[in-house]
Amino acid sequence: MSDEKSSTELTSGHPEKFTDPGMPEHRQRRADVEPAASKRAERQVAALFGISVIGTIGSMVAYFAIRPDGTTAGTRLSNLTLGLGIAFALLGIGLAAVHWAKAIMSDHEVVEERHEQRSPDDVREAAVQKLDDGIADSGIARRGVLKGAALSALALFPLTIAVPLVSSVGGDWNVSKFRHTRWEKGMRLATDPTGRPIRAADVTMGNVFHVIPDVSEEERESHEWITEKAKAVVLLVRMDPRDLKEAPDREGWSYDGIVAYSKICTHVGCPVALYEQQTHHLLCPCHQSTFDVADGAKVVFGPAHRPLPQLPIEIDDEGYLVAQSDFHEPVGPSYWERLK
Fold it and tell me: Which residues sit opposite 190 in a β-bridge?
């Protein structure tokens, strides 16, 4: 029987048990055998923690000294400098921890046999002792420079998150302002970003215009304009008036097939700007919510729950498109005072 079994094993090529290959021979690192290399690695780790400290300080300087000034360039510069500071603060800590573990801490291979989930008391005491030995082996107790650098980096890094959060307390929490935009009766529709007023005659069949309120140049340069523009952006489309399905309460909100809807998706606020001329559908590129422009911008697909708010428009005496009023409902995604 045993001969048959051995023959089967040899034929199939699958032995019942594999030989334990054991642990490979341990290779000493330069830092383990050369005191100078160990000291150099310690200085490198300390320098990386120092980079983290500099990054934290830099992010604080950027947060307070380089504030958004209301312009696109100013906002971009503020975000860039703040982001770089936080990146160096985190990167320094991460690289220092990795280099410390690879170059300074013990790298001896250890094998532990599996055992019950609840270890005996003597084993638990031995585990605690190993942790103590590991701490001692890391050299943190006798490496004052490393300990100071690590503690400084770890202690200062939370400031990159805490300071912006704390400084925002007491800010503008008036959410009611999101119910209204800059649009008002008689305000002309202008192209974005040039600010050129739009004549109805300039909007040909199938044309799409990205629209902002026609405000003064002084207002466009103000700090508040970015917020106001973000709420008021509109997409203007012209189609065959026979294709329009206007609700009774919205009769007269369009002009000769020209309709204007908020560009802000009612799902999470992405810009809805992809227009399909044949289907009259507007597509949100973020989560594929789709709105039917010919039928009150109702949702025909995707996670959005509400139609896009429509801006009532007409023309003035000079043939320019103007707003009849502000939107009749809040623009943008849902918030806590809405059911949807």
Answer: 197, 212
Amino acid at 251: E
pLDDT at residue 198 in the model: 95
Burial code (b: 16+ CB inside 10 Å, e: under 16) for 280-311 equals: bbbbbeeeebbbbbbebbbbeebebebbbbbb
Q: Exposed e or buried b for every residue in 207-245, given b needs 16+ CB within 10 A? A: ebbebbbbbeeeebebeebbebbebbbbbbbbbeeeebe
CATH topology of domain 176-323: Rieske Iron-sulfur Protein (2.102.10)
Cα–Cα separations (whole angstroms), residue 188 to 195, 199, 318: 10, 9, 11
Longest Cα–Cα distance of the chain, Å, equals: 108
Please report the pLDDT score of residue 214 as a whole number.
Answer: 94
- What is the rounded distance in angstroms from the CA atom of residue 335 to the CA atom of residue 329? 13
Cβ neighbours, 10 Å, residue 256: 10
List residues bridging with 237 in a β-sheet.
208, 259
pLDDT of residue 148: 85
From residue 68, how far is each of 127, 220, 225 by CA, in Å? 53, 15, 12
Domain parsing of the chain, residue ranges: 28-110+119-166, 176-323
Regions in the chain scoring below 70 on pLDDT: 1-15, 70, 114-116, 139, 168-177, 335-340
Look at residue 89 in the predicted model and tell me its pLDDT: 94
Burial class (CB in 10 A: 0-12, 13-18, 19+), 111: exposed
Q: List the structure tokens of 230.
A: 């973000």
Residues 6+ apart with CB under 8 A from 277: 206
Token look-up 């007269």 returns 252
Q: Using alpha carbons only, what angle is made at residue 31 by residues 28 and 33, rounded to the nearest 5 degrees? A: 60
